[in-house]
Design brief:
Elements: H1 2-14, H2 27-35, H3 38-48, H4 54-61, H5 65-77, E1 81-88, E2 91-98, H6 100-103, H7 106-119, E3 130-133, E4 138-140, E5 158-162, E6 167-170
Antiparallel strand pairs: 1-2, 3-4, 3-5, 5-6
Length: 176
């Protein structure tokens, strides 16, 4: 773990300013142009969990309002998020929902969770996260298809069990 921190510190010290890769031929560069900021994937994760209100995102992520506002605006422009109206305290407000493009990130998010479980050290007192495929009711150890039943994994069919929060979060599909 110390090795990763050392490498990261050296890399960040040499990193050039962010480039615009939106017109690149390489699809990985174009993808990173949209998804390369860690906040983007964390926001998509939370929105897929149904935490789409600005205040929820701010509090869950521990992100400043200014940074969150910029990320949300950019994510809407990139087609990752939409907004839907809801009424609270007699006022119409908006919450963020995932688009099809954001829902298509589910395998990437699940693979990151699986990789993190396998290759990073669990903090003291922590417990392992599991991914449960609701149609078959079993844990999956794969990101795109259920390792138990072989069915494709869709956001609305997944529950992420997070013991450190004593929580089970059922995911939502696009527009949810």
């Amino acid at each position: 773990m110390a090795f990763f921190k050392e490498v990261r510190a050296r890399t960040l010290a040499r990193m050039p300013l962010r480039s615009d890769w939106s017109t690149e031929h390489c699809p990985i560069r174009r993808s990173l142009d949209v998804l390369g900021d860690p906040w983007v994937l964390l926001i998509v994760r939370d929105v897929l969990h149904g935490s789409g209100r600005f205040e929820q995102l701010r509090d869950n992520l521990g992100i400043s309002e200014a940074v969150l506002s910029r990320r949300l605006r950019a994510m809407r422009e990139a087609g990752l998020l939409d907004t839907v109206d809801y009424v609270r305290d007699g006022r119409t407000r908006q919450r963020y929902v995932a688009t099809e493009a954001a829902a298509d990130l589910l395998p990437l998010l699940q693979q990151l969770a699986i990789w993190g479980e396998q290759h990073t050290r669990l903090p003291d007192g922590g417990a392992h996260m599991t991914l449960r495929h609701e149609p078959c009711g079993r844990e999956t150890t794969r990101a795109e298809t259920c390792s138990a039943c072989g069915e494709p994994l869709r956001p609305e069919d997944m529950t992420w069990v997070k013991p450190w929060r004593s929580a089970e979060h059922r995911l939502r599909g696009p527009g949810g």
